Amino acid sequence: MLESGARRSKSSQNIVPLQAFERLMGLNRRLKYNFIALMEPFQDPKQLDQYKRKLGCQNAYCNVSAKIWVFWEDDWKGEVLRDSMQQITLKLSKKNVEMICTAVCASDGLRDVVRHFF
After folding, report:
1. pLDDT tens for residues 5-38?
2. For residue 51, what are the CA distances in angstroms to 56, 80, 107, 111?
3. Which superkingdom heads the taxonomic lineage of this protein's source (predicted)?
4. What pLDDT was estimated at residue 37?
């Protein structure tokens, strides 16, 4: 049985909570996030551009396992520094501001992922 606002993904048997994504779209419209990371979207990576458009972002990237999707605004230059099965690290820069953003998706083996930071 599916909850209201959820649908079954064609590519897997996972439940995709549409209400959560719709809420994210509303928050992004209101707060205008510069960077968004989605963990385990349970969607086909071919849909990345579609989600990018829905969020109103100009740039998007998914990691090698397609479990982490990141989106950022066009006025930021994004450079992927590290892309692995459980994490992605980007350098985002804009004028004289530069930051490193890391998104981690690791339920098991978090210790192995964190070890790469030190």
Report:
1. 434 344 444 445 678 889 999 999 999 999 999 9
2. 8, 19, 24, 31
3. Eukaryota
4. 95
Please report, rounded to a whole number, the percentage of residues in the chain having pLDDT higher than 70: 75
Three-state SS letters, the chain: CCCCCEEECCCCCCEEEHHHHHHHHHHHHHHCCCEEEEECCCCCHHHHHHHHHHHCCCEEEECCCCCEEEEECCCCEEEEEEECCCEEEEEEEECCEEEEEEEECCCCCHHHHHHCCC
Given 3.10.20.30, 3.30.420.140, 1.10.357.10, 3.60.10.10, which CATH number is that of 6-115? Answer: 3.60.10.10
